[in-house]
Amino acid sequence: MAICEHLSTSDDPTAKTPAGCEECLASGGRWVHLRRCLECGHIGCCDSSPSKHATEHFHATGHPVVQSFEPGESWRWCFVDSQMA
Fold first, then answer.
1. pLDDT tens across 53-79, in order?
2. Under a CB-based contact definition with an 8 Å cutoff, are residues 15 and 4 in contact?
3. Over the stretch 2-54, which tens digit does the pLDDT of each residue have?
4. Read out DSSP for the chain?
5. 27-58 burial string, b = 16+ CB within 10 Å, else e?
6. Phi and psi for 43 in degrees, rounded to 5?
7. Cβ atoms within 10 Å, residue 22
8. Which site among 13, 23, 34, 58 is 20 to 30 Å from 50 CA-CA?
9. Nearby residues of 39 by Cβ (< 8 Å), 6 or more positions away
10. What is the C-alpha to C-alpha distance for residues 27 and 23, in angstroms, rounded to an integer?
11. Among residues 40, 33, 35, 34, which one has the least CA distance to residue 12?
12. What confidence tier does 1 reach under pLDDT thresholds 50, 70, 90?
């Protein structure tokens, strides 16, 4: 399967909140795993986390690709095409 356009053209922005999920840090929430938006650097929590801020960020902004922000992981996910790279 060919890689989707969003994954092949994604950027590598600096993480806005490298200490954790931006919204959870602000509200005192908790997260399981972190995802970095490859358009703006937003750090959000994964769908296994109570608040699912990474997916919420996609729905609010339309930014299509996240990358795992976990140590030792480099996979990326495109929300639009439901494809991993």
1. 999 999 999 999 999 999 999 999 999
2. no
3. 899 999 999 999 999 999 999 999 999 999 999 999 999 999 999 999 999 99
4. -PPPHHHHT---PPPS-TTS-HHHHHHT---SSEEEETTT--EEE-TTSSS-HHHHHHHHH---EEEE-STT---EEETTTTEE-
5. eeeebeebbbbbbebbbbbbeebebbbbbebb
6. -105, 120
7. 20
8. 13
9. 10, 11, 13, 61, 63, 64, 65
10. 6
11. 40
12. low
Q: What single-letter amino acid sits at 77?
A: W
Determine the residue type at 76.
Answer: R
Block residue for tokens 């930014």: 63
Instruction: Supply 13's token pair.
Output: 């922005």
Which structure tokens are listed for 41? Answer: 């650097």
